[in-house]
Amino acid sequence: MLMPKFDKHMAGMENLLKKVLKHTMEGHLFTPEDATEKKWAEHLVERGLLRKNGPAYELTDSGRKEARAVVRKHRLFETYLAKKTGFPVKEWHALAEKKEHSIDEETLNKWEKELGFPLVDPHGDPIPDATGEMAHIETRLLNEVKPQKETFFKIIHLEDEPETPYHNLIDKGLYPGLILKIKYEKEQWHLTFEGLQVELPEEEAGLISVIELEEKPDFFHAVRLSSLDEGEKAKIIGLSDALHGLTRQRLLDLGFVRNAVVSVYMKAPFGEPAAYDIKGATVALRKEQADKILVEKL
Q1: In angstroms, what CA-CA distances link 264 with 47, 193, 269, 275, 278?
Q2: How far apart are the first and last CA of the chain?
Q3: Collapsed DSSP state (helix, strand, coil) of residue 229
Q4: Bridge partners of 56?
Q5: Where in the chain is the domain with CATH 1.10.10.10?
Q6: b/e map of 188-199 (b: 16 or more CB within 10 Å)?
Q7: Residue of 84, 85, 83, 44 whose CA lies nearest to 64
Q8: How does DSSP assign 43-93, residue by residue?
Q9: Contact by Cβ (8 Å): 43, 70
Q10: Which of 229, 207, 93 is nearest to 157 (CA)?
């Protein structure tokens, strides 16, 4: 690893290594954008992690290994935040950008084991293993897919940079693992999922990697618990893959498990919180929590 503890100088070089790796994976060389990047690049050449190729730079074998080690820290930490903490999804990337430079190997290996040796992070990005190898899944960007009839897809990855369009996708309810029915019409992608309909422009569609499904998935008719009206009853199909960490465990502990029957006892005047009867108890949930519980109306 490049560093056992946080150091601003080394963090700058590690960030540049990640950037060069991204360029490499996209099939082109890296050229510094400013004097600071050029300074970091020259330091990395001195360390044997980059080599010059005309005005551009490329990774050496050692540089590729170090770059993937930093990516491994970042993606494992995001996975840890998702599975083991209550931090909001919009904060994961920024927290990991800072923490990745000071995670020691012992802590990293502990998290990896505790998380069950995950292959991908919460965004769907592959996590390098200890040797630097990464799982590969053949996907297509949504803006390259323009079905004229409704077709089923699964989201594999949401690009989290730049932040603003990524946050727009989160706000629209999209997440890795989500099953979509998609139709392209009038230069927009029309998505149907969890009882909702969403339209995406080109910019946002280009941030979503998907795989096409051969047939309609089971339980595609499931809707969000939050969509039920007062007095309606439903059977729980499952919890959304967008539900992480402590909140997910709390809902499971409260009885929101597959096949459990739930009914809407009362809704506040503005829709939240709402009270639900489940397994002999009445539980109050905010809308953002009920959004993550998928049900089939009875």
Answers
A1: 63, 22, 14, 6, 9
A2: 55
A3: coil
A4: 53
A5: 1-136
A6: ebbbbbbeeebe
A7: 44
A8: HHHHTTSEEEETTEEEE-HHHHHHHHHHHHHHHHHHHHHHHH----HHHHH
A9: no
A10: 207
Nearest residue to 276 via CA among 265, 268, 267: 265
Which regions of the chain carry the CATH code 2.30.30.90? 140-212, 223-297
Structure tokens at 50: 């980059």
Give the residue with greater pLDDT, 186 vs 3: 186
Tell me what percent of the residues of the chain surpass a pLDDT of 90: 39
Tokens of 221: 């008719």
Q: Which fold has domain 223-297?
A: SH3 type barrels. (2.30.30)
Cross-strand partners of 238: 294
For residue 153, give the nearest of 163, 141, 164 by alpha carbon. 141
Q: Where are the alpha helices (DSSP H) in the chain?
A: 8-25, 35-46, 61-84, 89-99, 105-114, 163-171, 202-205, 245-253, 287-290
Give tens-digit pLDDT for 278-295.
999 999 999 989 999 999
Encoding tokens for residue 129?
A: 């293993």
Distance between CA atoms of residues 45 and 286, nearest Å: 53
Instruction: Write down the CATH number for the domain with range 140-212.
Output: 2.30.30.90
Counting DSSP H helices and E strands in the chain, the numbers are 9, 14
At residue 143, φ and ψ (nearest 5 deg) are -70, -5
What CATH number has the domain spanning 1-136? 1.10.10.10
The amino acid occupying position 247 is T
Token pair belonging to 253: 């502990």
What's the average model confidence in pLDDT over 230-255?
Answer: 88
